[in-house]
Amino acid sequence: xxxxxxxxxxxxxxxxxVATSTTAMAAGDEANGKKLYTGSKCNQCHGTxxxxxxxxxxxxxxxxxxxxxxxxxxxxxxxxxxxxIDVTAHLNKQYYKFK
Length: 99
Ligand code: HEC
Prior knowledge:
Elements: H1 3-24, H2 30-39, H3 49-52, H4 61-75, H5 81-96
Helix pairs in contact: 2-5, 4-5
């Protein structure tokens, strides 16, 4: 195998690696988040109006995730990390629309 061919192959491999790791870091599964959210008792203390009120507390994606975590522990839902991220993705898509 000549050196150029080798180089091309390893470059292609690198690209595949980058592509897969980007997918793995994708911002959660919204559909699953929606299911989790509707199936939980999240509406016990507040409805979805807190997500859209003018003076809402959450101003970025990290804060949204932190708040979902806080509220989840209030409820003792004990969502796993990936479930927290799914619910965060759902709320973001539906209400917050952070980039
Ligand atoms: C034990 C009561 C309680 C439950 C149950 C609860 N929350 Fe909350 N939630 C609060 C309180 C209190 C606030 C803060 C309201 C405020 O600061 O005015 C809040 C605020 C929030 C916010 C931020 C709203 C904003 O201002 O932008 C999000 C997002 C949120 N909750 C998500 C959830 C999710 C998801 C669940 C279900 C796991 C949930 N909450 C269940 C009490 C609760």
